[in-house]
Amino acid sequence: MPRGVAYRRLFTAPAIVLALCLWAVEQQPARKARDAVSPHRHIGAVAGWGWTSLVRWARDAARGRIVRKTRPVARDGDPRAVARRVVLAVAAFAPPGLRDATLREQVFAGAALAA
User: Fold this and answer.
1) Which three-class secondary structure string do you get for the chain?
2) pTM for the whole structure
3) Binning pLDDT at 50, 70 and 90, where does residue 115 land?
4) Which terminus, N or C, of the chain has the lesser number of Cβ atoms within 10 Å?
């Protein structure tokens, strides 16, 4: 499987973790995170108020099922808290040259390297 591809997912690991970063760390509404990450412009009726995949991705990423090189993180707390822990764990995989980059850039690069 090519680097960065998340097993059995429609999105790549970097895209998933970037969406989690926007939603959990930057506190953007789920819909804005979807608009920033998803190439799909036609969405279902339920998607008008959120993006249910974010909660599932946070849970699965916390178990190490999306970014495989990360250790599992604590799954207690609300889904955004779990997602924040995942995002910070993945950002640690970013190359040292990105130390001064934005968290978005660190997370994207870290997920690509750790997937």
Assistant:
1) CCCCECCCCCCEHHHHHHHHHHHHHCCCCHHHHHHHHCCCCCCCCHHHCCCCHHHHHHHHHHCCCCCCCCCCCCCCCCHHHHHHHHHHHHHCCCCHHHCCCCHHHHHHHHHHHHC
2) 0.88
3) confident
4) N
Counting other chains too, the contacts that 57-60 makes at CB distance below 8 Å and 24 or more residues apart are: 57/16, 57/19, 57/20, 57/83, 58/20, 58/24, 58/82, 58/83, 58/86
Q: Tell me, what's the pLDDT at 6?
A: 65
How is the chain split into domains, by residue range? 13-114
Q: Give the separation between CA 82 and CA 66, rounded to whole angstroms.
A: 14
Report how far residue 77's alpha carbon sits from residue 98's, in angstroms, rounded to the nearest whole number.
30
d(CA 71, CA 49): 32
- The tens digit of pLDDT for each residue in 97-107 reads 999 999 999 99
Tens digits of residue pLDDT in 34-49: 989 988 776 666 555 6
